[in-house]
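Support request from a user on the community tier.

User writes: "When I paste my structure tokens into the form, the page sometimes reloads and wipes my input. The last time it worked, I copied everything first. Here is what I submitted, just in case something in the input itself triggers the reload:"
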């Protein structure tokens, strides 16, 4: 029987989502627990990957369970065995044709940045940038990223794939008490795309790049354009919509 599992995690002490030999990962921890429950090797299929240090408010995966277990008991069993930095929110029986990755219609990510005084308590959850930014200028620049585009300029050169085209439905940028919140909604995002977009917008906010430079860099389809990838700890997968 196929189950849809919705879960959250604190990514601070993980080497990303995807399973890697000898490293602590989200997928590795989940599959270790499910191996015990399912009486054998069990693979999860996530809605997508998150990088080292990135958090999830709502991540989703599907898994095939061979033993007879209710949704509620599966949730309880997983939470009793998982480490405290992963929590299963819900489990649901789905059709065997359901696919957690290929059937996604929308993903929502948030990125948190602190322009104010350094906060050691939040250092793993909010990017401690600790410099003032021109937020209005960043908002104007972000409009060039909305829509259907080839985002090759926002992924590493070594990330070779057939298709770099994604659609961003909306970008919201707000500032409250020196915490800048970026919210990205789109049909999907490629490796480092959001962190690179934030990194470029930071350069605009520092007046090191002009608003029009965002369009020029997007159109160039070239990652070598003099801006840094923003830190991972400010990034959250907020929602996955089917």
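"...and here is what came back when it finally went through:"
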């Amino acid at each position: 029987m196929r189950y849809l599992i919705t879960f959250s995690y604190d990514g601070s002490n993980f080497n990303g989502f995807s399973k890697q030999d000898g490293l602590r990962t989200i997928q590795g921890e989940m599959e270790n627990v499910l191996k015990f429950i399912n009486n054998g090797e069990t693979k999860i299929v996530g809605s997508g990957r998150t990088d080292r240090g990135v958090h999830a408010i709502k991540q989703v995966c599907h898994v095939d369970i061979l033993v007879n277990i209710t949704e509620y008991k599966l949730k309880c069993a997983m939470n009793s065995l998982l480490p405290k930095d992963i929590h299963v929110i819900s489990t649901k029986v789905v059709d065997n044709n359901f696919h957690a990755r290929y059937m996604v219609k929308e993903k929502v990510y948030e990125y948190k940045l602190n322009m104010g005084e350094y906060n050691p308590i939040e250092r793993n959850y909010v990017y401690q940038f600790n410099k003032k930014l021109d937020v209005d200028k960043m908002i104007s620049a972000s409009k060039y990223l909305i829509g259907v585009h080839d985002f090759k300029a926002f992924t590493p050169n070594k990330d070779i794939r057939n298709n770099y085209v994604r659609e961003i439905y909306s970008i919201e940028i707000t500032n409250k008490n020196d915490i800048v919140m970026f919210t990205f909604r789109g049909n999907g995002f490629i490796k480092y795309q959001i962190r690179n977009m934030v990194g470029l917008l930071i350069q605009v906010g520092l007046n090191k790049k002009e608003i029009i430079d965002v369009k020029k860099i997007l159109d160039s389809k070239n990652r070598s354009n003099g801006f840094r990838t923003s830190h991972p700890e400010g990034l959250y997968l907020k929602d996955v919509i089917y």
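Agent notes: The reload is a front-end session timeout and is unrelated to the input. DSSP finds five helices and ten strands in the chain. The radius of gyration is 19 Å. Escalated to web team.
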